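Reading a protein record of the kind used here takes only a little practice. An example makes this concrete, so a full record is given next.
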Amino acid sequence: MSGDIDLTAAHAMHDALRRELAHLDRMTTSADRDPRQLPATAGWVLLKKALRAHHTAEDEVLWPALRRGLPGRPKDLVLLEAMEAEHAAIEPLIEAIDAGLADPEADRLGLGVLTDALVTGLAGHLEHEEAAALPLIRRVLTAEQGSHFGRVQARLLGHDAPLLLPWLLDGADEPTVAKLLAPLPASVRATCAAEWVPAYDALDRWSPGTAPTH
């Protein structure tokens, strides 16, 4: 319907999630790291917060808008149903990992199996979404629908923005950073540059003892 939809935020989120999945994989497979320390790391907390905000925005805004734009297109609806099913499979893995982490008798091997399933499952979902769903979104949805999705995702990140905005910008190229910051008030951009980014850069987020306390 519109080729003007901007999916910069979606791609940036996917890139950030892949970056953190690589850290999670190292955290849970390296001989000198203990997955039972995950709850004490900012990396695990931020990964969960960002992923849940992203998937909630897709489930509540993006997929319904896409469904309304696909009447009489059963093959495309099957793809949409696959996206929803993949989302539904990821949250139980996170909950199972957290349940295991809360169990003092949990073993490293069991936690490693669960985190490997999360890394593999989420990475596969991101690849599937980029290869099939995002091109469909570009063909069907309007620029305003895309902007609405971005606003909802930003709202869901909420009070965690001082950490999650630099987290999202981490490693992004200059055009991506400029697009992500452009909708924000000048005061927020200034605060991000002067305070949030330096604080984030100083955070060794996958080390125990770095988890946010709120």
